[in-house]
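JOB MANIFEST
job_type = single_chain_structure
chain_count = 1
residues = 266
[input]
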Amino acid sequence: MKEQQYAVVDRAMLPNILELVEQYDAEAWCVFPAPVDEPFALVAPYLALLTPNLEQYLTTLEQPWGFFMASSADNKSLIKHLRSLLSVYIQEAKQPTFFRFYDPRLLWCILDCLTPSQRVFFAGPMIRIRTAYPKQREAKFKSHAPMHRPPKHLTLNQEQYLTVLAQCYQNLEQEVASLFYQHQLQDRKDKSVSEVFAKQLVKHLSEWGVSVVSDIKSVAQYCIDSQVTEWKRVPTDWVTLLSNQQYSASYRIKALIKHGGGSSEL
């Protein structure tokens, strides 16, 4: 089969990808295994077989929507391989961790810390990958003979895991800082204030076991709605509630948003 141009697109970042695929007469398939409930489909990665116009459109986007990829494999083989990358094992951990390898802010951090054999597994049928945002970078993968006993999944050691995790937190801090900055008063905009608050908020929440991105962003949005712009202005009642790990993270977030911390009954 001849080499074809694809893109792996994060629908959480580009919600209208399916409309774009139809508009540019392309094709796309959800990477998550079927059946996919609508809430998951809205945040799933999609494999898109590109047309020149769709490729050009994606190249112009200034948002971390995913990455371009070239392969001579068919879409079914590619989807099977991409699904194998959605879960990663950490050494000595019993359960796999969901792996957002398709986030272009994370992709190069992952590839840079993999061993040669891990890169072979990661590449699979992919010949070449390329990102356009936030940085323009390309990698070509050498063809290798099939492994005698290929692994079923990617396993990271602790050092690799911590490297990737640090990049994840950095990405999240940037997203939260951007959210804070967007809602600052026009005559008081200060990126440094937003960045410091975002870093402190993400750090404290992660230490308290609040690690789901949507939960952290919900707390950030609640801070905005409550006009809390610095960590020192976070009410003590909020801190008491959010740091109480006797309860699940999702319960604490819901209690905060519903009752404002102090008036809730745990």
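[summary]
The beta strands are 4-10, 27-30, 45-49, 66-71, 87-90, 97-98, 126-131, 137-140, 154-156.
The mean pLDDT is 92.
exit_status = 0
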